[in-house]
Amino acid sequence: MVKVIELDAPLVVGAGVAGLSVALAAKRAYVITAAETGSTWRAQGGIAAAVAEGDSPQAHAADTVAAAGGLAVAGAVEALTLGGPAAIDRLVRMGARFDRDLDGELALGREGGHKARRVVHADGDATGAEVMRVMSEAVEAGDAVSVIEGRVVDLVRCEGRVAGALTADGRKRRAYTAPAVVLATGGAGRMYSMTTNPPGVNGEGIVMAGRAGARLTDLEFVQFHPTALLAGKDPMPLLTEALRGEGATLVDGAGRRFMDQHHPMAELAPRDVVARAIFWQYDRGSSAYLDAREIRNFHERFPTVTAHALSVGLDPEEDLLPVSPAAHYHMGGVDSDIDGRTSVAGLWAVGECASTGAHGANRLASNSLLEGLVFGARVAADVERRLKAPVGEMRVPKDSLKLPVHAGPALEDLRQVMWDRVGLVRTGDGLWAARNVIRGMEKVLRRTISGGRAADLALMMVLASLRRSESRGGHYRADYPEPDPTQGQRQLIAPGAADSTAVT
Predict the structure, then answer these.
(1) Model pTM?
(2) Active-site residue among 190, 271, 421, 446?
């Protein structure tokens, strides 16, 4: 028996920057969220926006396209960068306390791939937390957004449309029906054993969309942040790219810099270049450290990084910080336009779970919070124009009704396979080996909803990586180390809707 609850306003699945941006811009909305805090709270670096004198959205767009590996969608990049200044202004008017210089102007940082200082930040390295603070306070202060606590495990369909979401609490199931559904479920970093992403960021929203019949795209493009603190923690503490923007360098165990051998921009090269350079340090038996000792007033300027380092007995003002790449951001996701519309009526996607083409094959630093802010507002406007109350038989996938939700130890084994075989450096042989191993694990993984979703996404990511027999952006094939102009297009996957049953 499934309890059906009818909602009279859009349902937003996820309460990070993208989800709350939609909800706060809507006339009325419901936000459903699980216990996990998501990635926005942990975002350190900042928000890229052309707010400085002499900078422009066009210059920001040029840097975004340059980092995107030839796959950026021009309209999406334009919408993203043009919307930046207004997004920052909205946050300031909401009460966001961004860092400022002695003249009271926004203090702007520079990060990898940017040719100008345009990164707005808060408390040095706590921008995501500040954004979430002001947005959460706005939700609590108003009466237009209602928050529902629940674990969404699938989508409800009605007459060819998405018409709601199915939640699970132990054996209990609830089907919330709504005139529109917006997925803002984040990325897929937890698919990897080494990641900066917290629990819950495992791509389940992407898989749910596919199970409802939505097209997915660019699943092979995963961004690995170059500098996560190598200290035995899961998730790995992020060492913000802003540190390198302020002069921190990457060195080997003997204190020698190595990035100038890999790219003219050295430590400020695009993330995929820096991440692979560090990977190759370890691959040849060396090591990699971030040397931030020349940054003045480090503790005051970067309190979050300081706390992470001190927790493992390191002081950034005195010690080299051991670093490793870690899965950080997924450029792929639910195929959607700049208004969040997917290939299925009634369903929108926004933020990291969506793939508009704004990032192409490789996201430019600090464009992710910006994406949630800019496209969240666009999605809200489009949803308001297209609301349609569901009428007819409500259906949900059969396998979501009785299986337990949480995966067991097999999921940790899968994460290791993904890191080893579908990580920074891939090969055809390694990808085929990963496929065979995952197929062998499927029976155990599919005993739970989370395990089954992880198996689905892993296999689709492997397939997409096999099909792209070239290197481009976040996807690097050691057996095809150069980009192939004939493969310079986005890659769609259409999983097909899952078998469903009616709910009453």
Answers:
(1) 0.94
(2) 271
